[in-house]
Amino acid sequence: MAASPQELLQEKKGRIFDAVELKVPDRVPVAPLDSGFFVKYAGLSWDEAMYDVAKAAAASKKTITELDFDAFMPPAIFMSGPMSDTLNFRQLKWAGAREEASRVRSDSVYQFVEPGSQSYEAMPAEDYDWFLDDPTDYVIRRHWPRIAAELEPFRNLPPMHMMVSYYAGLPQLLPGFAAPEVAAAFEALIAAAREGTAWFGGLMEFFSEMIGLGYPPIMFAISIAPFDYFADFFRGTKGCMIDMYRIPDKLKQAVDRVTPWIIEWSLMQARMGEAMTKIVFIPIHKAAGGFMSEEQHQEFFWPSLRRLMVALIDEGFTPYLYTEGIYDDRLETIRDIPRGKAIYHIESDLFKAKEVLGDTVCLSGGVPGSMLNFGTPDEIRDYCKKVIDVVAEGGGFILDAELPLITAKPENVRAMVEFTREYGVY
After folding, report:
1. Is residue 184, in this structure, part of any structural domain at all?
2. How far, in Å, CA of 278 to CA of 288, rounded?
3. If DSSP codes are grouped into helix, strand and coil, which group holds residue 391?
4. What are the E-state strand segments in 92-197?
5. For residue 308, what are the CA distances in angstroms to 20, 74, 78, 105, 227?
């Protein structure tokens, strides 16, 4: 008799969390990070995926169920086309964008725009003082106008902390909110919120449907390393790399300032999705070899990230650290967390990671992106065998691709999943 969806759900969740806890499951679980493969697999265009959450969800469902992953990632459409258009958002370029300057091809996944590019300015180094003195005021009156053209009028708002009472600020400063351009900015913000609420509702329906079919999400909440908060969104990569040399104390002060907020934000999301999964996804963007030395990693990056991870672990959640780039000389440092409480995705040398981290965290990773894009199913099977024989030994491993799936050949992804299901039995 075939397993019921509820039995299937418990089986798949058990397989994933046995691996997380460094136990030996019945077989190696397969849970690829899908950052757009679902669009290709289902024959969708990115214009459709960015503007129709139901179509994106249906494409993702088709991919997950037909390939029978052990756990799924939600469709990689966190910012919808309608919401982005409403704000004239500058931190992304996406298919179907209303503004030509924000548009990419219909067959292209959305692209992140680095601060300091031609699209929008980065936070100047001298703005650290404003941010540290009043972060909320800074974000609303300086950062939002940079990243969304429709919010530029917020530059003209008075400082929030000056509006206190009936004669202390309100009569003198409130009229600034009545300016037509400021009112229009608020209207754009409200319209974007409505678009975002509808989009998020569609994603929540997708989660419920997939769980009802017996497929657990590998994550619900998503967080960010505190250093990346600045290097990704405010100062940019170049700015933060320069800051490590020119104003290291200011950079560390800012990272320390935002760490409690990121912990609070992460726990809020994690508790929202706790009934579905206890895993919190943390993509790591700016800590790889080549961006900073290991000494700089230990000084600027790891302490706040570890603080975030331990806070999540202490509340019963599982951090899923998705490292990007070369991490070979970081492995000894990132061992310093409680045993059997986290997942580390390793892109560079998964075999070395097994030697250093195999007794501490669950590892994920596997087939190189180039092989999935240009190789053959036989090459995929051979590589999976090599990975399973070494990295999956003794449990504590989730098979994934080396890089997020976007343009992989469907037959190669199928070979990866089916071979692991057959060969990866303990």
Report:
1. no
2. 26
3. coil
4. 92-95, 103-104, 111-112
5. 18, 23, 22, 37, 11
Mean pLDDT, to the nearest integer, of 353-375?
Answer: 97
How many domains is the chain partitioned into structurally? 1
> What's 336's domain CATH number?
3.20.20.210
User: pLDDT tens digits, residue range 34-44?
Assistant: 999 999 999 99
Domain assignment present for residue 166? The answer is no
The CA-based dihedral angle spanning residues 401, 37, 408, 105, taken in that order and rounded to the nearest 10 degrees: -130
pTM: 0.95
Structure tokens at 172: 């003198």
Count CB atoms within 10 A of the CB of residue 84: 27
Q: Is the pLDDT of residue 2 over 90?
A: no
Q: Could you tell me if residue 382 is inside a domain?
A: yes
Task: Tell me if 261 is assigned to some domain.
Answer: yes
pLDDT of 161: 82
Neighbours of 422 (CB within 10 A): 10
**Each residue of 83-116: pLDDT tens digit?**
999 999 999 999 999 999 999 999 999 999 999 9
Q: How sure is the predictor about 1, in pLDDT bands with cuts at 50, 70 and 90?
A: low
Domain around 25: 5-90+103-112+191-423
If one counts every other C-beta atom within 10 angstroms of the C-beta of residue 183, the result is 12
